[in-house]
Amino acid sequence: MAGRFVPRPTRTTTRGGDTQVPDERRQEHLDLGLTLGPLRRGPYDPTFRVTEDGSVWRATRTPEGPATLRVRAHGAEAETSTWGPGAGWLDAHLPALLGAEDDPAAFVPRHKLLLATHRRRPGLRLTRTGLVLESLIPSVLEQKVTTTEAYGSWRRLVLQYGERAPGPAPEGLHVMPDARTWARIPSWEWHRANVDGKRAATVVRAARVAPRLEEAAQLPPPEARKRLELIPGIGPWTSAETVQRSNGAPDEVTTGDLHLPGIVGWALAGDRTADDSTMLELLAPYEGQRHRAARLILLSGRTPPRRAPRLSPNDITRI
């Protein structure tokens, strides 16, 4: 089927202390930056690295343990290798991770801007990780703070409490902590990581019911969001940001965002004052593909001119 990955014959591999599974998969067009980019939390994310040869390295914690992925695009193909106790699980989920379950043909542009961007970005595929906590926790850290602050907090906590990625990973690549470790981080370490008590408590509550939350990756996206939002501190913004990644949800648009309604309103109607209600009305023609439409709008580069000052970082470590 168009836009799907098809396994190809691979070279014989050996399995030692680490598991290495080279593989190649084909697609009409593959853009690793567009597909895997949403999983990267800032340029210094310790779980994500792009090396000089164009390879994307990603460290992740699967239900079977830590795993490292290396993927490199060769035109319309991708060569992949995995290592670690979770390599088998990661291998089984690689097609979804690289966008094989996504169907961009379901998107019908109804605005010239989206038509042009859709044609200019043929490699856009929506990833599906099948993992909830690894997208939920950084999304919680991003609540009501600047991305720079959130990225710094994520980096510090992963480096301090995570573990080095298995296999021949680049120096500094780390797997995030397991749920038990997240739940046991002391309050003063959250403070040192510039995470306030409310966000820290939300992460701890989520970590304590991690198995139930991870089940949400197999639910329809609306049901997955409802399950996540049962946790105090997780609202529509956080659940959407999580499910877009864990479930590969093409219709789960983010509401409650400080900038997105104005960007969508400006791009589709020249209205920079649009709120969530107006944004959803403008995206209504794309029902079923509203998240993809919003991604394309962001990729178009058409944003309203800035009037208000940027949100200032709040360093709570000095309090």
UniProtKB/TrEMBL annotation:
Q: Does the keyword Protease apply?
A: no
> Which Gene3D superfamilies does the annotation name?
Hypothetical protein, domain 2
| Keyword set, alphabetical order | DNA damage, DNA repair
Question: Where are the residues of the annotated region Disordered?
Answer: 1-27
Q: Which InterPro entries match?
A: Alkylbase_DNA_Glycosylase/TA (IPR051912), DNA_glycosylase (IPR011257)
Write the protein's name.
3-methyladenine DNA glycosylase
Q: What is the lineage of its organism?
A: Bacteria, Bacillati, Actinomycetota, Actinomycetes, Kitasatosporales
